[in-house]
Amino acid sequence: MTEKDKLIKDHDYDGIHELDNPLPRWWLLTFYITIVFAVIYFAYYQILGGPDSDQRLATEMSRIRAEQKEAAEEVEAKIATKDYAALVANPEVLAKGKAEFMLKCMACHGDKAQGLIGPTSPTTTGSTATVRYPRSSRS
What is the domain range of residue 65? Predict the structure, then answer.
């Protein structure tokens, strides 16, 4: 009897013989490791009461809130020690502030902070101030 004959099972369907080939060892090892991992995972989280996702979220959020509170206290301490009267009198600081305003704020607020069309424009807030609308090239 040849080696191939030993692998053939006793049954066949429509003339098709089923071979009984063993699985590769690396595949079996991976399969068994997966089973062991699943048993340990289940025991830790379901039987021993390991932390679920809600508990981990609560822990992380409390850590984040503590960091935010600490950062806010640092900012408040910095603000309390600033001398804003000296900053307003400093022309270099005012020039930096103006440049920042022109770069980031002017598009919506105008070059003199008069405001343009938008959700806080005088026409939507009930103010009687005059609003300067940009001229259309089609008018």
Answer: 52-82
